[in-house]
Amino acid sequence: MTALDLDAMAWPAPAKLNLMLRVVGRRPNGYHALQTVFQFIDRCDRLWFDVRDDGVIRRVTEVADVAADNDLTVRAALALQRATGCTLGADIRYEKILPMGGGLGGGSSDAATTLVALNHLWRTGLDEEALARLALPLGADVPVFVRGRAAWAEGVGEQLTPIELPEPWYLVIVPKCHVATGAVFSHPQLTRDSNPIKLADFLRGDIANDCLSVVRHEYPPVAVALDWLHQRGNGRLTGTGCCVFAEFATQQQALTVYQQCPAAWQSFIAKGLNQSPLALMKTAG
């Protein structure tokens, strides 16, 4: 793939799954100390960027309930401009596939793809470390999307250790509700003092999500979907969102359960990935 190809084509913003999530403390600034495991899936938003000479950053795609000034893609582009002194701008358009409030990282992934793509298109020359530092103020999940490798994460989710995991097939169900991360983390019943574990504990099967009980209680559609999945596999919650998932060894196994999903539900199957489509695109380019 040539640089010209990268200039012209759509940039992927992949989803992630949190394969476990522990809340191990609370910092003086109110942020929670976490342990989690990120793995990507091959379900992506797609973004296009048209470079402007006048320095204007403009979102040209309408997104319901998200003002352009609050859009993470616009904020990411402005952050890159400020950090590098770049005088170029961009028109940003995208095809939104990942649900908001789903726990799949859609907004964070869109922001990371914006940073990576405009760093290339504007020729601003930041390396991955610099882009990851720039990404963190945009959201705790944004750095993992910039780096694009499955990771064991600590801190607020930004202290990343790349790991190699099996790459199974997942069935993901999107219940009809929007789970607000802030509401979950401020809930009085949230467990905030779980004992920290090691990566080896996760690999041996410690896959608990401390946010699960709160989300199940407050968002009944999530509980219904989890109960349905538990009858067919090990249903799990990703992050603090509404999406639930189950893991299967083969695509056919995932497809068989997918075909049993009630017609009214939004669901899909996806491949687990240790290297994200965005990272593969960077490598190819």
If you had to describe this structure to a student in words, what would you say it looks like?
With 285 residues, this protein is α+β, with helices and mostly antiparallel strands. The chain has a single domain (1-285), classed as Ribosomal Protein S5, domain 2 (2-Layer Sandwich). Helices cover 33% and strands 27% of the residues. The protein contains 11 helices and 10 strands. The protein has helices at 3-8, 72-84, 106-121, 128-135, 142-147, 181-185, 199-203, 212-218, 220-230, 251-258, 277-284; strands spanning 11-26, 32-52, 57-59, 89-95, 151-155, 159-162, 169-174, 236-237, 244-248, 266-273. Strands 1, 2, 3, 4, 5, 6, 7, 8, 9 and 10 form a 10-stranded mixed sheet that branches. Strand 3, helix 2 and strand 4 (89-95) form a beta-alpha-beta unit. The longest helix has 16 residues, at 106-121. 43% of the residues are buried. The model has no long low-confidence stretch (mean pLDDT 93).
* Beta fraction: 25-35%
Terminal Cα separation, in Å?
5 Å
Number of H/I helices: 11
Largest sheet: 10 strands, mixed
Radius of gyration: 19 Å
The count of DSSP E runs of length 2 or more, i.e. the number of strands, is: 10
Q: Characterize the overall form.
A: globular
CATH topology: Ribosomal Protein S5, domain 2
The CATH architecture name reads 2-Layer Sandwich
Unreliable stretches, pLDDT < 50, 5 or more residues? none
Tell me the series of helices and strands, N- to C-terminal: HEEEHEHHHEEEHHHHEEHEH
